[in-house]
Amino acid sequence: MGHQRDPRSPEQLREAGHAAVDWLADLLGRIDELPITAHVEPGAVRAALPDHPPEQPESFAQVLEDLDGIIVPGLTHWQHPGWFAFFPGNSSPPSVLGELLSAGLGVQGMSWATSPAATELESLVLDWLVELLGLPRTWRVDTGPGGGVILGTASEATHTSLVVAREQARARDAPTDDLVVYASVEAHSSVQKGARVAGFHHVRLLATTPDGGLDPAALAAAIAVDRAQGLVPTALVSCVGTTGRGALDPLDQLVPIARSEGLWHHVDAAWAGTMWICPELRHHTEVLGSVDSWVTNPHKYLFTNVDCTAFWVADRRPLLDAMSITPSYLRNETTDRDDVIDYRDWHVGLGRRFRSLKLWLVLRMFGAEQMRTILREHVRLARDLADRIEQHAGLELMGPSHWPLVCFRAVAGDDRTRAIAAAVNASESLAVTVAEDVDGHPYVRVSIGQANTGQADVDRLWAAITAA
Predict the structure, then answer these.
(1) Is residue 344 part of a domain?
(2) 374 and 336 in a common domain
(3) Residue 160 resides in a domain
(4) How many Å apart are CA 170 and CA 178, to the nearest integer?
(5) Which residue in 123, 119, 154 sits closest to 354, CA to CA?
């Protein structure tokens, strides 16, 4: 194999790496010129590529040709400033660099011993986030009984929290088949999936108040019914910023119920929690010291590419009790030390990427002040759009939002609502999402959060909405 085609060569990394960065920078520089959604038929991308892997090495230039000609046209561009769909999935140059460095270092962070710096950097950046997001100081791993860990997704965090809740109940001799999980009808689907994977047979999706938050009276009534039937109320999953319309569960009323009933209380703040970097966007922080676990996704609003989920527990001991298994091949001189973290014991998986490196670069190269400035501008843009909708005779808001998410529908009915969304999405430079309320009526979700979205992009969106 010739030196120039040896993919192990540092010189190959240098040459191809420069080309890759130039290619990506050029693409991001013109991404607003690309159609947001892919115009390909199912199977078209695969059909354009060889059926069989190459026997001989190919050049990186050949790979870039296929990226340009085949892969990019088949992508949905979440980094486009006209992206108002789902939630933001932001990347950023510091995050890209951190991902590159992490991939190049290629360390395995399953335990402190396998890469001490990977473990200690992760605990540090999560302690930084405790401070930046205004979370309880006892959740810092350096000062309290709690601590944080970086997972792949918020769904993993929900699943993990429900496993811990299950193990806590089983330790009290409760039969697994009798355990019950509670959440609202607007909770994320990961609650149901996580409960299923964790072995729960009973999941109660409860009614909400008109503003979309879980109704405390409905929770109390459901618990009473389940206890009367001999079941074991076990876990509550509350939402801070529901996926559908950004609703806020009333934690100040739910926390006392969960505490008095002995429920493991997990709070899903996957989207909205990242915005707590702005103090004025925080809600119910005064009761967080009484919940058991909390999750948010830096890969939504904190400019760190997917996957990067921050998960905290108020007390790490139940988590470790549920997850720790140490066979001989993982045992070493540090595994039993109280001052050492082995993050493999903090979640289901064993292997761990060096995810904290990209979050560290983002926090250092942006700085908290600049991140707050960008977020506050998005909040302003959302309020401006909401004001326009409220003043339009043919549109109505779904209700107030605490964060930069605007949900609305057409006064003329469901068909007109869907037609508006379809017309916006047909523009190729804008993307919104359609969701349905609990009665099956559609509404349009406008999530303002792509890192480069500005006033001109919201104005383009408003023009498309009114034209439709």
Answers:
(1) yes
(2) no
(3) yes
(4) 10
(5) 119
* 268 domain residue, yes or no: yes
Nearest to 379 by CA among 448, 433, 431: 448
Report strand pairing: 309-313 vs 232-239. unpaired
Mean pLDDT of each 10-residue bin along the chain, 468 residues long: 68 92 95 92 94 92 95 95 94 95 90 87 96 96 91 94 95 94 94 93 95 95 97 97 91 96 96 95 93 96 94 94 67 61 86 92 97 96 96 91 91 96 94 91 95 95 94
- Do the domain assignments include residue 441? yes
Cis peptide before 307 (omega within 30 of 0): yes
Query: In DSSP terms, which residues pair with 265 in a beta bridge?
Result: 236
257-273 burial, b if ≥16 CB within 10 A, otherwise e? bbeebebbbbbbbbbbb
Selection from 227, 297, 238 nearest residue 264 by Cα: 238
Task: Tell me whether residue 157 is exposed, middle or buried, using C-beta atoms within 10 angstroms of its C-beta: 0 to 12, 13 to 18, 19 or more.
Answer: buried
Query: Any residues with CB less than 8 A from the CB of 94 and at least 6 apart, and which?
Result: 303, 358, 361, 362, 364, 365, 366
The pTM score is: 0.92
Residue 351: C-alpha distances to residues 156, 273, 324 (Å)? 14, 27, 14
In the structure encoding, which two tokens stand for residue 158, read together?
């929900």
